[in-house]
Write a structure and sequence with these properties.
Length: 751
């Protein structure tokens, strides 16, 4: 009987192990957030996104940080806001906030006030067309990134609300969103977004007493925590808006100019949950009717999924439907802040293994914020009618377990979207296997863009050259340089009258980068940029990076080329337009060329194993367990994670002689792992010295090893202040213990 029970127990354990292993290979969808839909026109119309955004935290690469925010900021005084509109009487605030966001970005970019249609978004989006059903920026961004805005005069509000009819494609699309960022609910993060990009779309709870009757005087405050129900546009702030040391937001509403302060209101930071679900449009392009966005995520980023490790892979099949076309850009949704991505385009994929035959990329970078991003291909890729190409994405969201964006609510495809935990073995996320939904990777495809008439008022030139010479690089290394792309009209004898022709102070330029061997190359500012010295902007910075692939051969030589060019009259980067004068000569004299190069040579990688340690390590007298650090390093950035074993010995001058063994497990290529020798200096005299010797070897083969010696020196302990925190803590504990004893004895005496 006992034998049978034992066998049954072992069988259960085995089944559990197998089930656990199988479960570990299944993707897991991120938790969804309950969406509160408006009950009718008496509600305000904002419905929060279906995501739990608690993981969206303030993050910004130190290299991208601006100066500290100003004490106050107001886009109304800087021509950065379009006129206030009126959504009455329908729950369409979400569309008004979205259009207000885009209108402000176009105004800041083009200095033209446009009036775009809110009704077009409301009546034509795929999620809900009911004017009282509510919505959010996820819906509006999805719509504007696939199609675009139309003019208000063509699709006028309120039209047929509450049940309008979509009139597409009767109206011409005008602007298309290409980049959009989710901003953490954090005062400094929202300030930075406002100051960097312009007005910020946010949500709040607007049903608190006094909001609907607000007359524009004073600064509102409300401490309730009800779900947000209203979409608005933050246009500025003042650190003293609501009193001494009490800051607040300046906010544009969509209830007409008769409400509030000509349609605006002032509210204390954090009140009424304002700042929740904040987001901002950061880039757009003119709509091109010849271009088509190919996608399967009809509802956009409506959910996230992953294998619980924060780094997963996706492939989406795209089948061109036209002849003589090219892939011009790739787009994706980032689900966390920050997100590190590698995006590529491939020609072949069998539905299971890693795609093959690279067509474009890899494009690798880190974005600070969750959101929607577009990568313009430096060289468009020719595609054929009916011949699929494949978008590949490696997405790393760190501690957030769900890096893959997908649509779990729209129509689902079959064998178009694939997911992998390791980038080597894929399975369909859609109806072809897991049946979760369609992944949010997109491609813009259309005919070849022919450069138009050249516009050559200014003169392009890099203010600084590359370092020059030949730079040694190793496999897996990324080399980056910050370039200053400048309008050198003021130093040109050809374009402009030696700086006196102020017409030449304004022109549009671009930077393109390429290399001889096809290594991954990135350019942080790939599009056309307006340089206007009249406005104090005569240069812009762009980070150019090149990464040495792991397949590179030692001794191989590569040349990176950066070209600063004119953009044509259509806003297309046009290197064929040539240059006015090259080089331009600035004071020094220093030549400023429009084409610069940098040579690289692949050097041997560092040893697969090496050890770092301090020259001398000091140990305080009396320490009975002093930890002496050594860094065990996997020096080859292209090497797989490696397990190392080590042995640490000592002479025995400080404490007993060491004979300590251990392991450093899974040390990734190009990284180090700290291990420690532990010595007992409890009875060692001051000035006693000792040496620790460490030997480390590859645990799998035992053939790769390194060794080094660390000297240690015993010193007098640093005096502890009489009333330091530890002393105070001990005194308090002692008093508590004494009081407990007294109380116990008193109770015993009474008994």
């Amino acid at each position: 009987m006992r034998t049978r029970l034992l066998l049954l127990f072992l069988a259960v354990l085995l089944a559990a192990a197998v089930s656990s292993d199988a479960f570990a290979q299944q993707p897991t969808a991120a938790p969804k957030k309950y969406m509160t839909f408006p009950a009718g026109p008496t509600e305000f119309g904002y419905v929060g996104p279906p995501h739990d955004l608690s993981h969206i935290q303030p993050y910004q690469d130190p290299g991208n940080m601006l100066l500290a925010p100003a004490a106050s900021w107001d886009w109304r005084t800087m021509s950065g806001v379009t006129p206030v509109k009126n959504q009455n009487p329908y729950g369409t605030c979400w569309a008004f906030a979205a259009i207000g966001d885009l209108e402000s970005k176009v105004l800041l970019s083009e200095s033209v006030v446009y009036d775009y249609s809110e009704l077009n978004i409301q009546s034509c989006n795929v999620t809900s067309t009911d004017c009282n059903a509510g919505g959010n920026a996820w819906m509006s961004t999805n719509y504007l990134s696939i199609l675009g805005t139309v003019d208000e005069s063509c699709d006028t509000y309120p039209g047929g609300c509450p049940a309008p009819t979509c009139i597409n494609p009767a109206c011409s699309y005008l602007k298309q969103v290409t980049e959009w960022k989710v901003i953490a609910n954090d005062v400094d993060a929202i300030k930075a977004a406002l100051q960097t990009y312009g007005p910020v779309y946010t949500s709040m709870y607007a049903s608190f007493p006094g909001f609907s009757t607000y007359d524009g005087t004073g600064c509102m405050s409300y401490t309730g925590v009800e779900p947000t129900n209203h979409g608005v546009l933050i246009v500025g702030w003042d650190d003293e808006l609501c009193g001494t040391g009490v800051g607040g937001w300046i906010v544009k509403n969509s209830w007409g100019t008769a409400w509030g302060d000509n349609g605006y209101f002032y509210i204390e930071w954090g009140s009424a949950s304002i700042g929740s679900n904040s987001n901002v449009i950061t880039d757009f392009r003119d709509y091109d009717p010849n271009m088509t966005v190919y996608y399967y995520d009809d509802w956009g980023w409506w959910s996230s999924i992953g294998f619980q490790d924060g780094n997963d892979f996706a492939v989406v099949e795209i089948t061109p439907q036209g002849t003589g076309e090219f892939v011009h850009s790739l787009s994706f949704w980032a689900t966390a802040s920050p997100t590190t991505y590698t995006v590529s385009l491939y020609d072949n994929f069998n539905g299971t293994n890693m795609p093959t035959t690279l067509l474009a990329g890899p494009f690798t970078a880190t974005v600070d914020d969750a959101g929607y991003y577009t990568i313009d291909l430096p060289v468009p890729v020719a595609v054929s009618l009916g011949d699929p190409v494949y978008i590949y994405a490696d997405l790393n969201t760190g501690s957030y377990d769900y890096p893959i964006p997908y649509d779990d609510s729209g129509p689902i495809e079959t064998d178009k979207s694939f997911i992998s935990s390791d980038g080597a073995s894929f399975a369909a996320l859609d109806a072809g296997n897991y049946n979760y939904g369609d992944i949010g990777l997109r491609a813009t495809i259309g005919p070849e863009i022919i450069a138009g008439e050249c516009s050559k008022e200014g003169d392009p030139g890099f203010y600084f050259d590359f370092p020059g010479g030949t730079i040694s690089v190793i496999r897996g290394e990324s080399w980056c340089e910050n370039l200053y792309a400048a309008n050198m009209y003021w130093a040109s004898a050809t374009c402009g009258d030696f700086g006196n022709d102020m017409t030449a102070a304004l022109d549009t330029f671009c930077v393109t980068v390429d290399d001889d061997l096809g290594w991954p190359v990135t350019n942080s500012v790939p599009g056309c940029q307006i340089l206007d010295d009249n406005a104090g902007v005569w240069y812009y910075e762009t980070d150019v990076c090149i990464t040495v692939p792991c397949e590179a051969i030692v001794g191989e030589v590569n040349v990176l080329t950066a070209v600063m060019s004119y953009c044509d009259v259509n806003g297309v980067c046009a290197p064929d337009c040539g240059d006015c004068e090259d080089p331009n000569v600035r004071s020094g004299p220093i030549d400023c060329w429009s084409t610069i190069t940098q040579t690289f040579e692949v050097a041997a990688s560092p040893p697969a194993l090496y050890i770092l340690q301090d020259t001398l390590y000091f140990v305080e007298q009396g320490q009975t367990a002093a930890y002496i650090p050594f860094s065990v390093c996997n020096g080859d950035a292209c090497a797989p994670p490696t397990d190392y074993d080590f042995l640490i010995t000592s002479l025995g001058n400080v404490g007993a002689p060491l004979n300590q063994t251990g392991s450093a497990e899974g040390v990734a290529g190009g990284t180090c792992s700290d291990v420690y020798g532990i010595v007992d200096a409890g009875t060692a005299a001051v000035c006693t010295w000792d040496t620790l010797t460490i030997i480390v070897w590859d645990a799998a083969t035992g053939t790769v090893y390194d060794t080094c010696v660390q000297a240690i020196h015993v010193v007098e302990p640093v005096p502890v202040p009489l009333f330091s925190a530890p002393v105070v803590t001990l005194l308090v504990l002692a008093m508590i213990a004494a009081a407990a004893i007294v109380m116990k004895r008193s109770a015993a005496n009474k008994a």
